[in-house]
Amino acid sequence: MAEIHVLVEGYIRDEEPQRVGSTVSLIRDDDALIVVDPGFVAARSSILDPLAAMGLPPERVTDVVLSHHHPDHTVNAALFPNARIHDHWATYQDDRWISRPAEGFAVSEDVTLIETPGHTPQDITTLARTADGVVAFTHLWWTAEGPAEDPYTTEPALLHRHRGRVLDLAAHIVPGHGRLFVPGASTPR
Q1: Which CATH topology does 3-174 take?
Q2: Each residue of 13-72: pLDDT tens digit?
Q3: Which residues contact 168 (CB under 8 A, 6 or more apart)?
Q4: What are 119-178's pLDDT values in tens digits?
């Protein structure tokens, strides 16, 4: 079963200038070392130092998953030179572009992707089967508190439908800009 580690707890700070950090996570599944959403952070060391503390140089990361293509979730993907990059419609490595749907794609034995458009039309969610249940890495929620209505979605009904789908599957959620949480009655659907 997979193990998860939140490397950077994401945030949104309304100050001038606005500060935004994506939640950056590591999933370890046997030989697979998967980084999810290596985007905006205060410094690249915010991602690399926790990996180094686990004895993992960036060259050992096998896969990077991008939940969507906003820069605050993608800008540091190149930190991992040997990784396959996964998004909503392909896997990329070096000069190879391998088209495939994300729905049901197995990154490793216990880690799969599902298509969950909502925040953007191209959103995907990473599902990791762990000893504590399924953990969903997704931008369907910014934080545990919401927002209940995503201000960037163009299709609110789609967002709410996919939130329901993920809530049916996941015991824990790692949102786009906040701490891991256990969904409950107050979780925005």
Answers
A1: Metallo-beta-lactamase; Chain A (3.60.15)
A2: 988 888 999 999 999 999 999 999 999 999 999 999 999 999 999 999 999 999 999 999
A3: none
A4: 999 999 999 999 999 999 999 999 998 899 999 998 999 999 999 999 999 999 999 999
DSSP H or E stretch at residue 46 = helix 45-53
pTM reported for the whole predicted model: 0.97
- What are the structural domain ranges in the chain? 3-174
At 160, which helix (H) or strand (E)? helix 156-169
